[in-house]
Specification:
Number of strands of chain B: 0
Shape of chain A: elongated
CATH class of the largest domain in chain B: Mainly Alpha
CATH topology of one domain in chain A: Alpha-Beta Plaits
Number of strands of chain A: 4
CATH topology of the largest domain in chain B: Rna Polymerase Sigma Factor, Chain: A
Strand order of the largest sheet of chain A: 2-3-1-4
Oligomer: heterodimer
Structural class of chain A: alpha+beta
Number of helices of chain B: 9
Largest sheet of chain B: none
Strand content of chain B: under 5%
Shape of chain B: globular
CATH architecture of the largest domain in chain B: Orthogonal Bundle
Order of helices and strands of chain B: HHHHHHHHH
CATH class of one domain in chain A: Alpha Beta
Structural class of chain B: mainly alpha
Chain lengths: 204, 194
């Protein structure tokens, strides 16, 4: 629940009227409103009392002359040379970060060692790496330059062949027969569009 | 800013110019003219006289060093109160934020010097201010005690005007609900805020 708009406006105006910085219009408006509104009148009385209390001189009893003497003496002191601060971060923060880095380094080391020991030879090979040793029963095949990709794929499917390497510098692919069929070499040699088909063991 | 404020600010600017030229007499005049209001302002942050004096001297040591670089974007009083506020916060961090509590030595001194009505008024105020946060106490002091505008307070506290408004609003609501009760009045009809 909120006060009516006129009371809210009075609430806003009170500090500045008390300061003497409100406009004459605001001053007059507030005076008229207070004459009609008991709640705001009570509020204004409390605000006046607050201002009066805050205007009382400080009760800490400091001697300005003694303080000034100390300030003047301080001006005559050589300026302290500040030691270069190593870092803005607090010592606790620095230590926590150092510990976190150390833990990460140890973790990475352990992980790397495990990977190296568990998997000395990678299970995959990129085409840029040197050719893997020939698989038993592999065949080197050089298709004709005019052979269409669709015909090549159809031939591979028909003979159940899989490309395991190539093409190399002379355009040769290495194929293996999934089914291990013995007459694959003959079928390849007889196939249209195949310029050469030789067992891989004979041509390492 | 009224004519008196303008005159005061002109005087303060002249003193700053003399300080920039190394005139310690100007520093002494400025120090004495601000000592009372800084004492009262800083007493809203801490009750320790030694800390208050330390902050006042830190403030004027900085004013002495920076007098030549005062750009004049604000009144000198706003500039000095801003320095004092930041020095005060730094002192609070170093010494801990002592609550506003009456210490016996101060009570004796106050009782000896205050007329009864002032004493009652101080107690009434102290019990209200202790319910406020440091920032709320500062805003209340700067607006009601020193007489700064919202814009001035925003410069002093280095925050948006909206933040100052909010701090003043909530401080007034708290005081409104607390102070009448301490004066023996009912607060049951004062729970609403505009």
């Amino acid at each position: 629940m909120t006060l009516p708009n006129r009371c809210a406006r009075a609430w806003e105006a009170m500090p500045w009227v008390l300061q003497g910085t409100a406009t004459p219009q605001d001053n007059e408006w507030l005076t008229q409103h207070l004459a009609q509104c008991e709640a705001c009148r009570t509020e204004f009385e409390q605000q006046s009392r607050l201002r009066l209390a805050l205007s009382l001189p400080a009760d800490v009893g400091l001697d300005p002359n003694a303080g000034l003497d100390r300030l003047m003496a301080r001006l005559d002191e050589p300026e302290p040379v500040e030691a270069p601060q190593p870092a803005r971060a607090s010592p606790w923060l620095s230590r926590a970060l150092a510990v976190a880095v150390l833990v990460q380094a140890i973790g990475i080391g352990i992980l790397g060692a495990r990977l190296w020991s568990e998997n000395p030879a990678p299970a995959y090979r990129t085409l840029s790496q040197e050719a893997a040793p020939a698989v038993r029963g592999a065949i080197h095949v050089v298709p004709d330059a005019t052979m269409k990709l669709a015909d090549w794929n159809a031939l591979l499917r028909r003979l159940d062949l899989q490309v395991v390497d190539g093409p190399n510098d002379v355009g040769a692919y290495t194929l293996v027969a999934r089914s291990g069929a013995q007459d694959t070499l003959e079928h390849l040699r007889a196939a249209q569009g195949i310029r050469l088909a030789e067992p891989a063991e004979d041509h390492p | 800013m009224n004519d008196a404020d303008t005159h005061d600010d002109d005087t303060d600017r002249m003193l700053l110019q003399r300080m920039a030229a190394g005139d310690r007499g100007a520093l002494a005049v400025l120090y004495r003219s601000y000592h009372g209001r800084l004492c009262r302002f800083l007493s809203r942050l801490t009750r320790r006289p030694d800390v208050i004096e330390e902050v006042i001297n830190d403030c004027f040591w900085i004013a002495w060093q920076k007098a030549g670089s005062f750009r004049g974007d604000s009144r000198v009083s706003t500039w000095i109160m801003g320095i004092a506020y930041r020095c005060g916060l730094k002192a609070l961090r170093q010494h801990g934020a002592e609550p506003i509590e009456d210490d016996p030595v101060r009570d004796e001194r106050s009782s000896a010097h205050d007329p009864g009505e002032d004493r009652e008024l101080r107690d009434w105020l102290a019990k209200g201010l202790e319910r406020l946060s440091v920032d709320q106490r500062v805003v209340v002091e700067l607006v009601y005690g020193v007489g700064h505008s919202l814009d001035d307070v925003a410069v002093i506290m280095q925050c948006p005007v909206g933040t100052v408004k909010a701090r003043l609003f909530y401080a007034r609501v708290k005081l409104r609900n607390v102070l009448p009760a301490l004066a023996g009045e009912s607060i049951s009809h004062r729970e609403n805020v505009p």
